[in-house]
Protein 1
Amino acid sequence: MSITSNRVRAAAYSFEPIRQFYFYSRYADRRGDPDICDFTFGNPHEMPLPGLVEAIRHYAVPHNKDWFAYRASEPEPQTFMAERLSQELSLSFEPADIALTNGAMAAIAVAFRLLLDPGEEAIFSLPAWFCYEPMLLAADAVPRTVRLRGDRFDLDLSAIEAAISPRTRLVIINTPHNPTGRIYSRDQLTDLADLLNRASERIGRRIFLLSDEPYRRIRFDNHDFTSPAAVYPWTVVAYSYGKVLLAPGQRLGYLALSPLMPSSDKQALQSSLFAAQMALGWCFPNAVMQYALPDLEGLSIDMHALSAKRAWMTEALERAGYEVLRPEGTFYLFCKCPGGDGGRFWDALAGRDVFVMPGSVMGVPDHFRISLTASEPMIERSLPVFAEVAQAICDARQPAA
Ligand SMILES: Cc1ncc(COP(=O)(O)O)c(C=O)c1O
C-alpha cells in the first residue's frame, strides 16, 4: 500500500517521462553546461529584458508599511487588466472577470478546480503540453485525448465530437499551440463553438472551453489571432507573462472569464474564483508582480530577433533535409525526426552536445521540438551538427552498393 494519494500517484505516473528527462537523462547530466546547445525548454539563454528588471527593482522597495501584506486579486491590477484585455481581444471585460494568478499553470489549476467534479472528463488534443494530463489527474478529473489531424496538426473536430460523453465538462484548446506553433482560425473556432453548443444540448449539460493562450502575443508575420472567448461564451482564458517576457520563473498571469458568458453563469464563476484560488493554496501573484503589472504589460521579447531566428533555423534545417512545420506563433519549431526513429536521432544529437525536446514527452515520438529562445551562438554551433546527423542517418539507411 502506498502512503501517497491515488491522485498524486496518477499525476506522478503521467509526469514520469518528463521527470526522467529533466532529472535522470543524458540531458540531465549536461543541463547548465555552457558547452551544450540547449534547445529543450522555453527558458532564457540571454540576460532578462531591462524593463522587467527595472520594474521588479522599483516595486521591490516598499512604499508603505502594507507593501508586503497579503495580496489576493487586487482591484487596481484587475481593473487595469480588464481594460487592456478588452482592447486586445475586442471584448468588454469587467474587473471581476479577471483572476490574477501566479502564471498560466495556476490559472489552469484554478479552472480545473472551478469547473470539474471528480470523475468528470476534459478533452484535449495530442501532441500537447505535457502538464494537462497530470494536472487533470491531480484534480481527480479524467483526461480524454484525441489526435490533431494531418501533417499540419489541425484541430480534428470530428474526433472531439466523438470523444464527448455525458461526463464531458471541459474542452481544452491551446492557441498558439505548443508544440506545433499553429494558430487556429476564427472559422475553425466557430465550428468548434457550434459543435460544443450542439453537444451541450445533447448531453443536457454545458461543456466549458478552457483557452490556454500564454503565447498569444508571440505571433509571426502579423498572423491574426482569435480567442475562443470571442466565439464561445462559456470560455475561460488562461494567460501567462512568462512567455512574452521570457521570464517563466517570475510568476504572473491570469484566468479571465469570457464577457459573452450569460450573466448567471458568469456571476456564479466570478463569486467562486476567490475560493478556488485560496483553497488551491494561494494561487495569486506575489505583491511585487502585481504592482509591476502596468509596467510589464507593454514589454515583450524582441519579436524581430525571434522571427529572424525562426527563418534562419527553418531554412537551414530544410536545406539539411528536415521537415519543419513553420510556426505561426510560439517560440518553438516542430520538426520530424529524420529516419523516423526519435530515440536514435535524439541520441545522435546529444552525442554532439545538441539537446532538443523529444516528441515522446508530448505524445509524438517521431517528432522533436526546438526552442527558439536559444542564443545566436548556440544556433550557429548547432546547425552543422543538425545537418551532419541527418546526413549520417540518411547514409545509414541507403542499401549497400
Ligand atoms: C501551452 C502551455 N500552457 C501553459 C504553460 C504554463 O505557463 P507558465 O509556466 O508561465 O504558467 C505553458 C508553459 O510552458 C505552456 O506551454
Protein 2
Amino acid sequence: MALLVGVISQKGGVSKSTIARLIAREYAAAGWDVKIADLDISQGTSTDWKQRREVNDIKPEVAVEQFRTVAQALKHADVYDLMILDGPPHSMQGTLEIARASDLLVLPTGLSLDDLKPSVLLAHELVKAKIAVEKIVFVLCRVGDRENEIEEARSYIHKAGYATIEGSIPEKTAYRQASDNGRAISEVTFPTLKQRAEQVVQGIIDLLSEE
Ligand SMILES: Nc1ncnc2c1ncn2[C@@H]1O[C@H](COP(=O)(O)OP(=O)(O)OP(=O)(O)O)[C@@H](O)[C@H]1O
Ligand SMILES: [Mg+2]
C-alpha cells in the first residue's frame, strides 16, 4: 500500500496544488514511484500542470491522474510508493474522505485571520470526525517578508493545538512562473527561493519518514 498524503483546505487558492506538486517532485527525484491524485475535478489544475511539464520536457516525470472520488484514487494506490491527494476546495465531504485515507494531512494556509481561522476550524472539524491530531500539519504559504507576522500566525496555529512545518513559502512571481512552466517551486533558479521550498518539503519528508 502506498503512503498517502492529503493536501487539503476548504479555501480556494491557498497553495494546495503547489504544495502537492512540491512533495511529489521531491519524492520522484529521490526515485520513488509517486502519483498526484488530482481530486479537483472541476478545475484539474495539476493535470494541466503535468501537461506543461511534459511539453517543457522537465525531469523527473511526475505522474498525475484525475479521479472523481477518493475511493477511485485508492483503488490505484497500490502500485505506487506514495500517492498525494490534491484536494478540491469547498468540499467538506471530499476533504473528510481524504483525511480518513491519509497517513499525513498537510493544510496550507495564508497568514491573515481570514485564512487562519477557517483553516484551524477545518482542523477542529477533522479532529471531531476522529482524525488523529498528530496526522495534521500546517504549512504557512504565500507569506510576506515580515518575520513577526509569520511567527504570530505560527503561534496562532500552535495555540489551537496543531503543528506547523518549519519555514514558510513566500508569495513570489518566480514561484508562479515556475508553476506556469510545469515546474515545482523547488525547481526555481533563485537559490534562496529554492532553499525555502526545500526546507518546507524536508519538514514534510521528516514527518513521513516517521510513518
Ligand atoms: N507562494 C506563491 N507565490 C506566488 N504564486 C503562488 C504561490 N502559491 C501559489 N501561487 C499561485 O496561486 C495560484 C493558486 O495556487 P494553487 O493552485 O496551488 O492553490 P490551490 O489551493 O490548489 O487552489 P484551488 O483551491 O483552486 O485548487 C496558482 O496560480 C499558483 O501558481
Ligand atoms: Mg488546487
